[in-house]
Amino acid sequence: LFTVYKKNRRILHLAYLDELTGLPNLRNFQAHLEELRCQHLALVVLNPLNFKLINILYGYEHGNNVLMQIAAYLRNVSRQTENLRPFRLSDDRFLLIIKNEPSLERLLTLCKEFLNINDEPGICGSIAISIGLVQSTGPSHDATRLLKEALIALNSTSAAHPIQAYNTELEEKLIRVDAIEQEIKQALGGEDGIISLVFQPIYDGDVGQIVSFEALARMNSKKLGVIHPLEFIAIAEKRQLIIALGQKILSLACDFITQLRMRGIYEVSVAVNVSALQLMEDSFISHIVNLSKEKQIPLTQLEVELTESVFAQDLQFIATQLEELRALGILVAIDDFGTGYSSLSRLENLPIDYLKLDRSFVEKLQNSGEHGFVSDIISLAHHIDKLVIAEGVETEEQEEELQKLGCDYMQGYLYSRPVPAEQALDLLLAAENNDEQP
Ligand code: C2E
Ligand code: MG
Ligand code: MG
Fold first, then answer.
1. 343 has pLDDT over 70
2. Ligand at shortest distance from the CA of 303
3. Distance between the two ends of the chain, CA-based, in angstroms?
4. pLDDT of res. 341
5. Residue 398: CB within 6 Å of ligand 1?
6. What is the largest CA-CA distance in the chain?
């Protein structure tokens, strides 16, 4: 009887307790939560952020030690706080059920204490904890739903905000991001109509001729309608789709160059916005070279726009990439200049051709003679041999002031909004006809 008892105890132990830490496991959690359904409950998920790295750097044994220490810490907290019960959810995720605590404020205070886990003696290595939290709304809020919501909250934490309480907007945002991701994948898989390009002309400040077009990506989601480029580009970056999406955008831009060339337009170039992650990719340059061969267009008709955020990356590698682009005849512009971190002194040594003066500076320009920094930026840019494109020119007053200050090129709604390829070609024809008129 004793042997049978011992064997059954072992089976029960394995079924309901986590083998490594001895904490109750997920099955135990579900059973426990069903029992507590009618009470005021909160669920907390704790996740050491850099656990994978700890495993890689110090080995699995050390990783296991860290997990056991976290479990010991939580067990200790639960001994001191009666209404709290810890569980191990999976690999590096721990759960806490907190009973009879309806105040969100007090729950958040408690969670803040968990962030100090690093200060505990015995927990070695630097562990940053992130925490997702959810409060039960009543008996219908079952274990599966609660757990899902706590994980959604956890998913929305960041280094700056390591604690997040669940709310429905978080879930809606996650569903939206997922839908956008799926549709980007469909577009990359060859489905037409989701991702397209529009083109906005850039004019020579003196003679009013179109010198280039900026290609701007557009997304038309079947489910959600028009998605702003900053939103879908950021999602593509986060979900590792930006390289493929960037290649598609470059390919579409090359198609527009082909359209220009078919009409005998060889002098007008097309500028493509390139994300820092794309530029950092080793194969970025070779991809562009292959594309130009495949599409049979010269790269001198292509330009690249980079935001200042690229300078937060490995500057030496960036400089090499830019040199290679330049060697291929591709001109490079720094976009939204003045909003980021780059200084003119740093740019002096980088292979860059244009600075695109951010719209926020142009907005402030009026006939009053108030120029803010615009006049200084333009003269300093000229001093280090860079040309200046003003972005977001909307009024004739702004145009006039920019011309007075010697700005080289203009872009903005005053001239044209970004338009589809056909309309962009019409703009060129209209500009040509204007020139021909006396
Ligand atoms: P950006 O590269 O600075 O593009 C200029 C933005 O200003 C465009 O917004 C354009 O429509 C808008 N704009 C142009 N003239 C005016 C004006 O006179 N007034 C006002 N209020 N706005 C004007 P859009 O197309 O919504 O693009 C927003 C940003 O999304 C772009 O800023 C760029 O950073 C990013 N983006 C767009 N397409 C791509 C792309 O293909 N790849 C990457 N990586 N980023 C892209
Ligand atoms: Mg741009
Ligand atoms: Mg810009």
1. no
2. 2
3. 111
4. 66
5. no
6. 111
Residues 6+ apart with CB under 8 A from 215: 197, 198, 199, 249, 252, 253, 256, 270, 271, 272, 273
User: Which of 237, 273, 274, 277 should be mutated for ligand 1, with most atoms under 8 A from CB?
Assistant: 273
Question: Residue 340: is its pLDDT beyond 90?
Answer: no
CB neighbourhood size of 284 (10 A):
21
CA count, 13 A, side-chain hemisphere, 35: 8
Contact 421, 256 (CB under 8 A): yes
Residue tagged 């759960």 (tokens):
95
Judging by DSSP bridges, how do beta strands 195-204 and 210-221 pair with one another? Answer: antiparallel
Instruction: Give the span between the Cα atoms of 436 and 288, in whole angstroms.
Output: 36
pLDDT at 119 > cutoff 80: no
Q: Residue 43: in which H helix or E strand, if any?
A: strand 41-48
389 vs 200: CA distance, rounded Å: 13
Distance CA 266, CA 376 (A): 34
Q: Is the predicted pLDDT of residue 179 greater than 90, yes or no?
A: yes
Cα separation, 412 vs 61, in Å, equals 60
333 neighbors 352 (Cβ within 8 angstroms):
yes
Q: Which residues contact 217 (CB under 8 A, 6 or more apart)?
A: 195, 196, 197, 229, 232, 233, 245, 249, 273
What is this structure's pTM? 0.86
Q: Is the Cβ–Cβ distance between 332 and 353 less than 8 Å? A: yes
Q: Which residue is closest in CA terms to ligand 1's atom 12? A: 392
Query: Which residues fall within 8 angstroms of residue 255, CB to CB, at 6 or more apart?
Result: 295
Highest mean pLDDT among 76-90, 205-219, 238-252: 238-252
Q: Kindly report the protein residue whose alpha carbon is nearest to atom 10 of ligand 1.
A: 418
Q: What is the pLDDT of residue 249?
A: 98
Q: What is the token pair recorded at 21?
A: 């830490």
Angle, vertex CA 135, rays to CA 130 and CA 136, nearest 5 = 140
Residue 342 has pLDDT above 70, yes or no: no
Predicted confidence (pLDDT) at residue 422 exceeds the cutoff of 90: yes
Query: In Å, how far from its chain's centre is CA 75?
Result: 38
Please report which confidence band the pLDDT of residue 27 belongs to, taking 50, 70 and 90 as the band edges: confident
As to burial, measured by CB atoms within 10 angstroms (0-12 exposed, 13-18 middle, 19+ buried), residue 138 is exposed
Is the Cβ atom of 230 under 6 angstroms away from ligand 1?
yes
Which is more confident, 438 or 285? 285
Relative to beta strand 387-390, strand 354-357 is parallel
